[in-house]
Give the backbone structure.
Amino acid sequence: MKLIVDLIYEGGISEMRYSISNTAQYGDMTRGPSVINDETKRRMKGLLAEVQSGAFAHEWMKESRNGRKRFDELAVKTKEHQIERVGAELRGMMPWLAADGWWISEELEPETNARIKEGERWVYTIGIE
């Protein structure tokens, strides 16, 4: 997902399509319109209106003041979503990922890999000589 977003950010939709496989490109061009259509655009405009009017901020502040019960329930629910279970299963089939989900270079010995911390988050691995 990050790769796709980065490609769009750096060069737009056309550059992203150029950079992915022809199979993925075909899927995007033939199936994408059924996902992003007039109904999707209408809903996105409605969400933008909520942000612009302050309604979303008001709702969020109320949720925070009231102990974030719905937020916490939704956070648990999203962690249990099928996409998380399938993603974990797929990552388990990728030997180049470490057990904790971080990429490990096959070209470097495990002890020469290090993670770079950006704020509170580890963002990528590099080889250390």
